[in-house]
Amino acid sequence: MDEPFPNVAKTAATAPHVEAFFDAATSTLTYVVTSPGTRHCVIIDPVLDNDSSSAAVSKVSADTVVRYVRENRLSVAYILETHVHADHLSGAHYLRQNLGGLVGIGAEITEVQSAVAEIYSDASPLAPGGSQFDILLEDERTLTFGCLDIRVLHVPGHTPACVAYLIGDALFAGDTLFMPDTGTARCDFPGGDARSLYRSIQRLLRLPETTRVFVCHDYQPNGRSLQYVASIKTHRDHNVHVNETVSEASFVTMRCQRDAGLGPPKLMLPSLQVNVRGGTLPRHPITGEPILYLPVNKLGAAGTRDIQDIFPGQHASADLTD
Ligand SMILES: [Fe+2]
Prior knowledge:
Elements: E1 17-23, E2 28-34, E3 40-44, E4 47-51, E5 56-58, H1 60-71, E6 75-80, E7 89-90, H2 92-99, E8 102-106, H3 109-120, E9 135-137, E10 142-145, E11 148-154, E12 163-167, E13 170-172, H4 194-205, E14 212-214, E15 229-231, H5 232-238, H6 248-260, H7 268-275, H8 307-310
Parallel strand pairs: 3-6, 6-8, 8-9, 13-14
Antiparallel strand pairs: 1-2, 2-3, 4-5, 4-7, 10-11, 11-12, 12-13, 14-15
Helix pairs in contact: 1-2, 4-6
The structure holds fe (ii) ion (FE2).
Fe (ii) ion (FE2) binds near residues 86 and 185.
């Protein structure tokens, strides 16, 4: 079979080993990145399973990662999020409990937390300041594990807190780039901005052309097989949204038009409240049991303004026995 995205071979002796784990339910990729010649690794964008109809939360996907780490006797230095995901629950807390490691996310998480707190209102109070994470990562911060450095690149656009991680010749782009035949991610979440995304991507496209770009999702367009890595050169030449022929103005027009036709991701409301907490669930204020909230008319076209027309006089903090 033809290889659709060539030029993705490791390019240096210090290139990390990258093991990919695909969650078919959300088309999400989790990576375990191991420093060559050592047993030190980092985990990027782990998933916790969530069934939207039953609100069941389970750990089948995360346990696959746990097994891999244990079978290979790896030591986890960091569990890194590229951003607050809106389409799946983060497995960061569960993996930290089972494997150790520090949970890191972009420092602008505080901005996303404020926007998310508004969606959930007073149903789910959130401690401010990113205290749910072990480390908040500024642009150009360097972390080290094994014999490799992790360079943090702040790449706002999809969300204001998005970061990418450059480890040797491997770039973990989060949702800043999708595979070249898919292009880019939406920019209509709170704090998202198409112009910022274009500029963030230009920064990534200036990396060495042999850099391997690992994406956070692959939606397998037109039934093609799973692909999750392409070189910077392939993106420069072939990314359908941001190749070298696309201007900032035309990208912004295209992106905004596409986003206007998209509905919220299926797991957005369950995901946001968990992922701003580093992968932990809110607690019921009386029983202390883990709970997921579904705030009404906070997303999509209906908007909050309509809720008082349907349920006049009701307020979220009213009688809990309703
Ligand atoms: Fe995302």
